[in-house]
From TrEMBL:
Record protein name field: Helix-turn-helix domain-containing protein
Domain of life: Bacteria
InterPro entries per the UniProt record, alphabetical: Cro/C1-type_HTH (IPR001387), Lambda_DNA-bd_dom_sf (IPR010982), MLTR_LBD (IPR041413)
Segments forming a coiled coil: none
Domain (HTH cro/C1-type) ranges: 32-83
Pfam families (alphabetical): HTH_31 (PF13560), MLTR_LBD (PF17765)
Length: 290
């Protein structure tokens, strides 16, 4: 999908979710032919001409000012991530950044291996898991057994039935969060061919992914909570935080999980840590070298 089409469809999707009463627009009559606000109503709220706004929904953003984008964003009631995404679609950033890590810095792997009672891993810009500790595989997916080309959370969430079963009723939430993050990433690097290939593959192989992608939700991944129905230790509730790695531009972030102290989840993690024979990325590398 071209950037112009992305811009137009994003604006239409955000306009469709607003009702006249949400923004103080009089709703004349009980029947409306369009879902959400009319383009004329949105243009009036943003303080731009209808013709100008129509051009934006047609994907024509050449010369559009930051002030107009801010006005449209405010009228659409975009959140901060959506606001940034709109600006990036209209004014694509120019980035020159390596996307394939040559090697993981040893201190990062040592940090992961030192975390023995909670999952922790380093992820790249394509949700690809670059390095992980043993509990990551024990709790989520046995990453050592996953083909390298599918060792991404996007593949596992949308295409791995065993992982879907572990997520249980929480799968829809996790899947939507993943799709929204991929759309956020596509706004950061609109010309990233590897990212586009990943998204196209998932749209082709997963009808659920395609449905969620068409909703145009946009969210960065900063923190949250994982809920896992583990076959050995039962339900796990694991809050997580993400830490950016500014010294490693070819990596995205470090993901750290921690169960609430004294909780059943903490006790379950300790049992898994004591009994699991899953491999960390360091274990897998050592095995492949021997």
């Amino acid at each position: 999908m071209t950037r112009n089409r992305e811009l137009g469809e994003f604006l239409k999707s955000r306009r469709a979710r607003l009702r006249p009463e949400d923004v103080g627009v009089p709703a004349y009559g009980s029947r409306r032919r369009v879902q959400g606000l009319r383009r004329e109503e949105l243009a009036q709220l943003a303080g731009v001409s209808v013709a100008y706004y129509v051009r934006l929904e047609q994907g024509t953003a050449d010369g559009v000012s930051t002030e107009i984008l801010d006005a449209v964003s405010g009228a659409l009631r975009l959140d901060p991530d959506e606001h940034a995404y709109l600006h990036r679609l209209a004014h694509p950033p120019r980035r020159v950044r390596a996307r394939e890590p040559s090697r993981l810095r040893p201190p990062l792997q040592h940090l992961l291996d030192s975390i023995g009672h909670a999952p922790a891993y380093v992820v790249g810009h394509y949700t690809n898991v670059v390095a992980w500790n043993r509990l990551t595989s024990a709790v989520f997916v046995d990453l050592a057994s996953v083909p390298a080309e599918e060792r991404t959370w996007s593949h596992q969430i949308h295409l791995n039935d065993d992982y879907k079963a572990r997520l249980g009723d929480n799968w829809e939430t996790v899947a939507r969060r993943n799709v929204a993050y991929l759309r956020f990433r596509s706004g950061e690097d609109p010309g990233d061919e590897r990212l586009r290939t990943l998204i196209d593959e998932l749209r082709e192989r997963s009808p659920e992914f395609g449905r969620m992608w068409s909703a145009h939700h946009v969210t960065d991944l900063t923190h949250g909570e994982a809920r896992i129905r583990h076959p050995e230790v039962g339900q796990l509730v694991l809050p997580f935080e993400t830490l950016h790695l500014p010294g490693d531009p070819d990596l995205s972030r470090l993901m750290l999980y921690a169960a609430e102290p004294g909780s059943p989840s903490e006790q379950a993690l300790r049992r898994l840590a004591a009994t699991s024979r899953h491999l960390s990325s360091a274990d897998l590398t050592s095995r492949e070298r021997s």
